[in-house]
Structure formats: structure tokens, C-alpha cells
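Title: Prediction job returns without error message
Component: structure pipeline
Severity: low
Priority: P3
Assignee: unassigned

Description:
Job completed but the reporter wants confirmation the result is attached to the right record. Sequence as submitted:
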Amino acid sequence: MAKYSVHQQPVETLLSWIKSGDIAIPEIQRPFVWNAAKVRDLIDSLYQGYPVGYIITWRNPDVKLKNGQLSAGKRVLIDGQQRITALTAAIVGQRVLDKNYKETTIRIAFNPLEEKFEVLNKVIEKSSEWIDNINPIVNDEISISKAIKKYIFDNPEANEDLIEERIENLKRIKTKQVGIIELDAALDIDTVTEIFIRINQKGVVLSNADFVMSKIASDENHGGNKMRKMIDYFCRLLVDKGFIKHIQDNDTAFTKTPYYNSIKWMATGADSLYVPDYIDMLRVAFTFKFGRGKFSDLVALLSGRNFETRTYEDDISEASYAKLSEGLEAFVNQTNYQRFVMIIKSTGLISKKLISSQNSLNFAYALYLKLREDGLAESEVQGYVKRWLVLSMFIGRYSGSAESRIDEDIRQIKEKGIQVYLKQMEQANLGEGFWDFGIINDLESSSVNNNAYNLYLAAQINANATAFLSKSMKISSLIEQRGDVHHIFPKKYLMNNGYAQKAYNQVANFVYTEQATNIKVGMLTPEAYLNKVKTQIDAGTNEISTLDSHSGLQENLINNDIPSMIEEGNHLVYESFLEQRRRLMANKLKIYYEQL
């Protein structure tokens, strides 16, 4: 079987495919990542007749309809989206989204005298030698003769024959050939991905989530195209509340769908903790409704794949689209979304910087939706979701081979129930060895992106702990306000005594404290600054600390898991101090997990 065919098509044919809907572009609603200079270079290459790389398409499999007939699949664009978007922007004049989700126009100017292209700027705009926008000429909005007359009028010294020749060459950009690699419809996703990587030779991983987005974008029979819009619009509203007006003004057809009613609340919703992208939304909806974790399965099901007969059937496709729609509706439901965010915050994970694994959040949300659908009491649902989220972060459950792990976990939960499977995971991963050695070893790190350290901060927030040497300032407030992380043994003091960065920046040497306290401590040893704090407590002043009693000081040290040896703290006991504090931090983490 031929796995793919290679042929050439003129640019205008490619653009006509897009306009007619014969080719589905998976990323058309999301930001255009090329800068304008790359668009200019692409146009210049076409003008000069240089190769511009291949566009790779994959024809969807033909699907058997209920009446027995076959429905021909559309082409799905799997590589070349940025080039096609660049062409539609420069030649058709289509506006594109920048990285901030703002619509922008890319205008490419042409100098016929020098045969140069540039991104339009104010200098070029004022120069008569430049045609400030190639779009009307290439796109047949003005005739060549009119363009030539205008240019000669503005540049009477120019050679008319030369200008005519070069403007005609400009117009011929639409006839220039682009290579098309069309992959066979019978190929599975793994083979398509392998071909993609080999052709590109960039080692780029082709996301199966992009296949899903391509597929639903090109589907009108089952409402996939509207589903696709809901995903894109929801992700956009998360970061750009004003986009709601764009939807209302420019997509009235969508505003009449139930999907719009499901997502419009996000225009006034405010949350920066769980900010999903399209992959996250698909992941949660698929895992929740289908009880699977591998996107390749979702692509097959949306295609109508019958895994037993190895044929494609519209009934299966229709049921799969309906299921995915239910999952996405549940994802964007305001009550579900906001309750889930409240559950995350109730664990102490109140800031995105404390959560390094988006897939831990995704699985926790899928689990929340599943347990609610299964009819468990809200208090039970919350307990299981919190413990699963924190457990998955402790052990880095989804840091590698995420799809396979998600697939395994959701299947086991379906088969055994959450109570049994969670217990099994705890026994396998969170035994005494984990608390006595594993987590202590994880805390022997100088990285503040360490899961163990972030969960330790969450444990402190969960316990409503006050900041180091502070009477009332909460650690939660400092984290929300980007407060100071303070070295218990000051950094410069340790450096002066021969300690390397890896040693003085150990997370066990960190505490959150108020900026004023941090400044006043300076380079003092712990022994010296704690003696000062005690003296000031006796004198009724609070130059370094806001603490006003010796019992308050002791309680503050205990709550921040500071070993008692700190009161005689100097560089000679630093290593012993770190070891003792790691044990205290680990103990806090164990208590924290057990009370979730």
C-alpha cells in the first residue's frame, strides 16, 4: 500500500480548498506564532521561485452512512498551518490572532525597482517607491494596468516596461507551486506521526490532540465544528474577557447555540489557578466520558472506528461526537468548574506557581466529574479528588508517559472503584519508606519548582500558618502577593563561610517572611537575629519581628518547622540543621496528606 502521494498545487488552489472547506485547518482559531518578517520571507521565496517546503494533509477515512453509502472524508492539514495562515494573511488579507489573542493585519509591501519585500512600516508607507500592500494586486482586487499606472504616476522616472514585468511577476505568486504530501486515509495515527517526523526531520512531536481538533473542525454532520468553536472561545475568554463582544458581534450563529450559553459566564469569571488550553479541555472531557486516556482512541472513535470489524461506521461516529459534546459541556459548566477550583484551593494549592503538573489537575477534574456523575456525596467527591491530586503530585504520576498513566488510572477506577484503587496507590507509593526516606530525599533540592517543596507550602497554607517571625501575616498572603522567600541562614553569610550555591539555596533553608524582616536580618546568623528578636520582645519594640511574646516566637518556629537548634545557629551546624528541618517538613507533609 502506498502510504502517501506527493504532488504540486498552485497557491490559489490551496487557498480555494480552504475557502471551500475541503481542507480543515486544526489551528485556525489559535494564535499565529510566525512573526511578520517570516511572512515576508515566504512571499519573497514564492516570488523568486524558491521551494517553500511541503504541506502535509491526511484524508479522513470514508465513513459508512446509515443508508449504506460511503461519505468521502475531507483533507486534514497536519503540517503547514503557519505557512497557509501566512498566505491567507498576506494574499487574502485575512486578519490573524497574535500571541495575545488580539486580531492583527499583516501587510507586506513590495518595491518593484529593487524587487524587495518588507513588512509595512511608516517609512515605507511614505515612500512612493513601495507598493504598500501586495494583497489587492495578488488577490485580483485591482487590475495590473491600474497598479502600473498608479506606480508610474507616483514614480515618473521609473522604467514602465520594467515595472510592468515586475508587477506581473508579483501577481503570478498565486500560480507558484507548493508541494503537497497527501497521506493515505487507511493509515493509523502512529504511522502518520512517524511519517510526519521523518519528513520534517525536526523530531517534532505531532500531537494527537491536534488530530482531534482537526477532525471536529471539519465535521458539520455531528456539530463538531460548533464544538470546536466552543473549545477555542472558552480558552480565549479565560485570558481575554473582552472577546465576548467579538463573539456577539461577529458570530451570531454561534451565540444562538447551547454551547454559547454554556461558556458566556467565563466573560466575567476570574481565575488564574486552572487555565486549561484546548488539549486540557479535550483530555478532561475524553477521560471523563469515555473512560480512556489515549487521544488516538478518540480520533478513531470520532472517525466511526469499529474496533472489532475494523470498519468505519457513522453510528459509532455520531455516538462519539455526542459523548464528547457531553464531556465538554460538563467541563465548561460554571458550577463544575468553580467548585473544582475551590477544591484545589482548599488543599492549599492557591497559586499556579505551586502546581507544576497540569495533567495532575486535568485528571483530578476528570475524576471530579466522573464521581459526581456516579452519584457520590459531594463531601466524598471532594475528599477523593483532593487526595488523588496531591498523591499524583507527590509521586510525579503524570510527569512522563502521561497518556498511558491516565489511561491506566481511569480504567482501574472504573473497574475497582475510586476507594479501592486510591488505597492501592497509597499502599504502593506512600508507605513508611516514602515518608521516612523518599520525601526527605525529594526535599534535598535547590529547586523551588520541586513538587515536595510546593506541597509543603500548600500544607502550610492549608494550616493557615503565619510567616516566619511574623505575628499575623499569613504565608498564603505572601504567596499571593509575591512576598519574599527568606534564607533562614542568610545567603551571603553562608557564601562567606565557603558554602556553594547548591548548599545555601536548599529548599530546607527557605521560609516566607515579610520584606521588612528580611531586610533587617541582613547577614546576621540565626543565633544573632533570634537573640535580637528576644531582646526586642522584652523591650516591647518590633524592629525585626512583629512577634510580641516569647511563647509566640516558639510557636512561630514550630509552625514553620524550624529545629530548636536554630537558637544556637551558625554555619558549623548548617548541614545538621538542614537534615533536621527536612524531617520536620516531611512530617508536616504526612499529617497534611492524611487529613485531606
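Comment from assignee: result matches the submitted record. The chain has three domains: 4-200, 208-430, 441-594.
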